[in-house]
Amino acid sequence: MITCDSSVQHPFQPGAHGLACDGVSIQSIVASVGTPAYIYSARAIRDAYRAIDDAFGSYPHAIHYALKANSTLAIVRVLKALGSHADANSGGEIEVALRAGFGPREIVFTGVGKTGGELEYAIESDVGAINAESAGELDRIAARAQAAGRVARVALRVNPDIDAQSHPNISTGLKSNKFGVALQDARGIYRDRRNEKSLQFVGVHLHIGSQITTAEPLRRAAAALTTLALELRDDGVPLEHVDLGGGLGIAYEGRPMITPAEYAAAVLPELRRANIPVVLEPGRAVVGHSGALMARIVDVKRYPDGRQFAVLDTGMTELMRPALYGSFHRIVPVSPRQTAETPWDVVGPICESSDVFARERPLPDLCVDDLVAILDTGAYGAVMASNYNRRLLAPEVLVDDGQWSVIRRRQTLDDVLALET
Ligand SMILES: Cc1ncc(COP(=O)(O)O)c(C=O)c1O
User: Fold this and answer.
1) Confidence class of residue 257 from pLDDT cuts 50, 70 and 90?
2) What is the pLDDT of residues 332-378, one digit of tens each?
3) pLDDT, mean of residues 185-206
4) Are 32 and 25 in contact (CB under 8 A)?
5) DSSP secondary structure, 190-240, as one string
6) Deepest in the core among 122, 126, 144, 349, taking most CB within 10 A?
7) Ligand 1 midpoint to CA 210 (Å)
8) Cα dihedral 226, 227, 230, 235 in deg (nearest 10)
9) Using CA atoms, how far apart are residues 157 and 135, in angstroms rounded to an integer?
């Protein structure tokens, strides 16, 4: 039994014919689409979304799914159908959200270095909130909105200097990080601009990091934001919402993890002090468990000291997280051999020593042509892929209600070279 947290049943489970995704044989999908390939469960996405939605119950809330985690159109549409709104981190993600059918007001736009073009696009599109990163950016938004004869809906991203106790590369709420404005500066920035006719202050925003596994940093973030919202109310800047960002972690190792219910229980008492609607921007917690990357073993090597390598036909080009921040992913053979487990280094084919998925991982015997699944890669997997080594983007498959379909075909070399002279 493959487990995740208690709110979601893991979609990938061993079956009579090897690993299956919600009962659909991986072997049969891969026989058709080849490897490497991402396979996702629509059911798991829906369950994870509903767990967060249910956890906030009757408290006024809007879930803005963070497209950066996985913005493949079919995935985004699954969430749209559930009533999700969208969090976009670039002009491209705003456009994807609009093309997927979200109304402009259902989109919040965050980004640490928005270009002038992106700001104009967001203002013209009339998105629900542009989460501004600095006083300077607010002024640039105001100037552009004025030039366009528009009023831009804005929120200021604050940096509360809270340690998310996550990996340093995905912690964003410390004063040593590049994100947002210092919390103590925020009130003055709003006050100085509250009469700016081309700006409408609709919220305050923060996002302290990703893969957060304990409730306390999230509670402290909610407390800081609520206090600021109350102060702004006193200053005559009534807000429509506070935006807590994303960050809820998932159980990559299959061990118990903060649940959406625990998250809500930690932040709701703080939010109730202002009784103000909350915007949430979860990404990983919605799609992380839903996906797995399927790969075939192309070589097996054994060194004299006993170290053994399984070389896959997928690498950091398809799944960058392990190379980028040493992240852990469970790896399971699709049809495991009934042998004792021994330690394996599971690696990719790229000529980079960081192209490693696992070191000394206990696994049964592995042989060339065996299929393996790298689990919990629904978030920050396919979206981070690259064409390094002229490798081609892997196809993506969605399993829904016993059926499967290709939601992104495999890229061809012609697709890639079409951009070149
Ligand atoms: C501003 C913002 N919101 C939401 C998210 C989604 O975070 P997560 O996938 O950890 O929920 C991110 C990701 O880092 C982000 O930068």
Assistant:
1) confident
2) 999 999 999 999 999 999 999 999 999 999 999 999 999 999 999 99
3) 96
4) no
5) HHHHTT-TTEEEEEEE---BSSB--HHHHHHHHHHHHHHHHHHHHTT---S
6) 122
7) 6
8) -130
9) 10
CB 8 within 8 A of CB 44: yes
Contact 206/244 with Cβ under 8 angstroms? yes
Which of 49, 63, 170, 210 most suits a substitution to test ligand 1, by most atoms within 8 Å of the C-beta? 210
Residue of 65, 71, 79, 89 to mutate, ligand 1, most atoms within 8 A of C-beta: 89
The H or E element that residue 268 is part of is helix 260-272
Write the residue with the smallest CA distance to atom 4 of ligand 1: 246
Spatial neighbors of 173 by CB under 8 A, at least 6 apart, are: 159, 160, 161, 162, 163, 164, 179, 206, 207, 208, 209, 217, 221
For strands 241-243 and 278-280, give the pairing: parallel
Q: Is the beta carbon of 87 within 6 A of some atom in ligand 1?
A: yes
Looking at the CA of residue 379, tell me the nearest atom of ligand 1: 9
* Tens-digit pLDDT profile for residues 94-152: 999 999 999 999 999 999 999 999 999 999 999 999 999 999 999 999 999 999 999 99
Q: What is the dihedral of CA 128, 132, 135, 137, to 10 degrees?
A: -100
The predicted-structure confidence for 220-229, as pLDDT tens digits, reads as follows: 999 999 999 9
Residues in CB range of 56: below 8 A, 6 or more apart: 264, 268, 278, 280
Separation of CA 16 and ligand 1 centre (Å): 38
Which atom of ligand 1 is nearest to 248's Cα?
11
Give the Å distance between the CA of 288 and the centre of ligand 1.
Answer: 12
Kindly give the number of the ligand 1 atom that is closest to the alpha carbon of 281: 4
pLDDT per residue as tens digits for the range 78-97? 999 999 999 999 999 999 99
Question: Is this prediction's pTM over 0.90?
Answer: yes
Residue 180's pLDDT band, with cuts at 50, 70 and 90, is: confident
Any atom of ligand 1 within 6 Å of the Cβ of 378: no
pLDDT value at position 179?
A: 80
CA 206 – ligand 1 centroid, Å: 10
Cα(246) to ligand 1 centroid in Å equals 4
Residue 340, judged by CB atoms within 10 A of its CB (0-12, 13-18, 19+), counts as exposed
